[in-house]
Automatic annotation (TrEMBL):
InterPro entries: GH, GH13_cat_dom, Glyco_hydro_b, O16G_dom_2. SUPFAM superfamilies: (Trans)glycosidases, Glycosyl hydrolase domain. It comes from Georgenia daeguensis. Residues 14-442 form the Glycosyl hydrolase family 13 catalytic domain. This is Alpha-glucosidase. Gene3D superfamilies: Glycosidases, Golgi alpha-mannosidase II, Oligo-1,6-glucosidase, Domain 2.
Length: 598
């Protein structure tokens, strides 16, 4: 029954535990830190916590390299702490979604240790082992089985001298890819997932799940990626292999099998689980197929198209200024594309993305608060399930350090090393890293204005952003005009208005370079009840109009045919003393946004 799909009315909050709250003074956040902040999350009004990985891990990629899927890393606590976290969430009517990282494991996972032990190991085929390219000597440049470039720089292949073959790692060399072609691997993953479901988790966020099916030739061969002719000669001897491992031929088959084995109704006493697949490079067509409930695969996916919209020709390390019409067009395509089948996830931020207020807002003292509120408004009133990344509700900003020594992220450090050894200057490389490094998202959560922002009594693993003196949760809770209270109201709108959950999306003024405007509309016929079923139908609007100035200059728009809605209720605004609309004409201050109901 559609009513059982609770995630359609939910808002998810992502906790990156390492940077959330530290209770034992070791400078790294922990599960007891999350437990201690549940009242804060309840006050914000979120329904679900997605917890980035807390499993046993050597922490080469901050827990996205797992050496035991069924235990907690001592840095974060114990299984007993996790049980207490689940109980604390459930007692408050909230749910827990765990990160599932099964495209790869850690190289220290016993599965890989055994696989590596020799060509005859019974687990050899659990990972991707391949001989050197014919006519070459293993370990020498050019001997790699394919020319693929790793997400984290260098080759995707690591030479293992002892067993005389290479293994595949799309990410770091400590993250070997699991071989999903092997049914034993899939069975082990499903068993592990069932164990977590039985323990009480309410769903999974699946790390790079669209990379699990590789393109394999008839004799098991993997093939070279095509070298981009636009790249300067000698830029890198590696090529983009992504078409050979992204959205692969067996992906949907594997997802259907996982659904049948683990996720189907009745997984735990008839509880409905929530699933979201992280899918860099997913197409709209594939997303629709995967998230159509009839397919029985996943509930929603994370697309990367909108967060790639400002990438330069060489990718994320060269960000361009945002061209608003392009962002609007992309979001509109996904809103329309998944209107009748499938479901969107809505996000600006996560632990891999720079802070949105610095990236697409204006983090100057003058505009930080209103730009954070306005970006929150345009995202949260779209159709789909919104995700709030820790600190986003405070309008936390990029830290953008100028020195490489301040950074800890493996992607950033590897990119720096590769670029500098390729001849680029420190200044050039740091100019790319500052605005986009993943560490911008990973500086510790800013709780108050005490030392280290109240995150730890020790030395934080990554320095706090000096902005904590002004930007912190204690100040935001105390200020009724804070970004935090604006996010609370947005979340409340989703919980109370059916039009926010189900209304059909229509983009207005697609070419406007400053203003993001759209409507959400419910059908004219039929009763309208609250999203939670508890609100008086008479109070339910059938139409919302969102008008948002996404720029630091004033803007004026004429919303043809909108005079009536503009005379209606103003449900939410960033500027309570803004000039009322005159007929169809709306004048907006910098970063002013309004939500009208009809
Ligand atoms: O960070 C990225 C872009 O800025 C992506 O390339 C990212 O590496 C990719 O989206 C996959 O991310 C996920 O898997 C990685 C892990 O490092 C990320 O933190 C995780 O979100 C490998 O497990």
């Amino acid at each position: 029954a559609p009513g059982a799909e609770w995630w359609r009315t939910a808002v998810v909050y992502q906790v990156y535990p390492r940077s959330f709250a530290d209770t034992d003074g070791d400078g790294v956040g922990d599960l007891r830190g999350v437990i201690g902040r549940l009242d804060y999350l309840q006050h914000l009004g979120v329904d679900v916590v997605w917890l980035s990985p807390i499993y046993r891990s050597p922490q080469d990629d901050n827990g996205y390299d797992i050496s035991d899927y069924q235990d907690i890393d001592p840095t974060f606590g114990t299984l007993t702490d996790l049980d207490e976290l689940i109980a604390g969430l459930h007692a408050r009517g909230m749910r827990l979604v765990m990160d599932l990282v099964v495209n790869h494991s850690s190289d220290e996972h016993p599965w890989f240790v055994e696989s590596r032990s020799g060509k005859d190991s019974p687990k050899r085929d659990w990972y991707w082992w391949r001989p050197p390219r014919p006519g070459t000597v293993g370990g020498e440049p050019g001997a790699e089985p394919t020319n693929w470039h790793s997400f984290f720089s260098g080759s995707t292949w690591e030479w293992d001298e002892a067993s005389g073959e290479y293994y595949l790692h799309l990410f770091s060399r400590k993250q070997p890819d699991l071989n999903w072609e092997n049914p034993q691997v899939r069975r082990a993953v499903y068993d592990m997932m069932r164990w977590w479901v039985a323990r009480g988790v309410d769903g999974f966020r699946m790390d790079v799940i669209n990379l699990i099916s590789k393109v394999v030739g008839p004799d098991g061969e993997l093939s070279d990626g095509v070298v981009d002719p636009a790249l300067p000669a000698g830029a890198s001897r590696f090529a983009d292999g992504s078409p050979l491992y992204t959205n692969g031929p067996r992906l949907e088959e594997f997802l259907r099998e996982m659904h049948e084995e683990v996720l189907g109704a009745g997984a735990r006493d008839g509880e409905v689980l929530m699933t979201v697949g992280e899918m860099p490079g997913v197409t709209l067509e594939l997303a629709r197929s995967v998230t159509d409930p009839a397919s029985r695969e996943l509930d929603m996916v994370f697309t990367f198209e909108h967060v790639g919209i400002d990438h330069g020709p060489v990718g994320k390390w060269q960000l361009n200024p945002l061209h608003l019409p392009a962002l609007k067009a992309n979001l509109a395509t996904w809103q329309e594309g998944l209107a009748d089948a499938g479901w969107n996830s809505l996000y600006w931020n996560n632990h891999d993305q720079p802070r949105v207020v610095s990236r697409w807002g204006d983090d100057s003292a003058e505009h930080r608060v209103s730009s954070a509120k306005t970006l929150g408004t345009v995202l949260h009133l779209l159709r789909g399930t919104p995700y709030v990344y820790q600190g986003e509700e405070l309008g936390m900003t990029n830290v953008g350090w100028a020195e490489i020594d301040s950074y800890r992220d493996i992607e950033t450090l590897n990119f720096y090393r590769e670029s500098v050894s390729g001849g680029a200057s420190d200044g050039e490389v740091m100019a790319g890293i500052g605005p986009v490094s993943r560490d911008n998202a990973r500086t510790p959560m800013q709780w108050d204005d005490s030392p280290h922002a109240g995150f730890t009594t020790g030395t934080p693993w990554l320095s706090v952003n000096p902005s904590y003196v002004q930007i912190n949760a204690a100040a935001a809770v105390a200020d009724p005009d804070s970004v935090l209270h604006h996010y609370r109201r947005l979340i409340e709108l989703r919980h109370t208005l059916e039009v926010v959950v189900d209304g059909r999306f229509a983009l207005l003024l697609p070419e406007h370079e400053q203003v993001f405007a759209y409507t959400r509309t419910l059908p004219r016929e039929g009763p309208v009840t609250g999203a939670g079923g508890s609100v008086d139908g008479a109070l339910q609007p059938r139409m919302l109009l969102v008008v948002a100035n996404c720029s630091s200059a004033p803007a004026e728009v004429t919303l043809t045919g909108m005079a009536a809605p503009l005379a209606g209720d103003l449900l939410l605004t960033t500027h309570p003393d803004g000039a009322p609309a005159e007929g169809e004409l709306v004048a907006l201050s910098p970063w002013e946004s309004r939500v009208y109901a009809l």
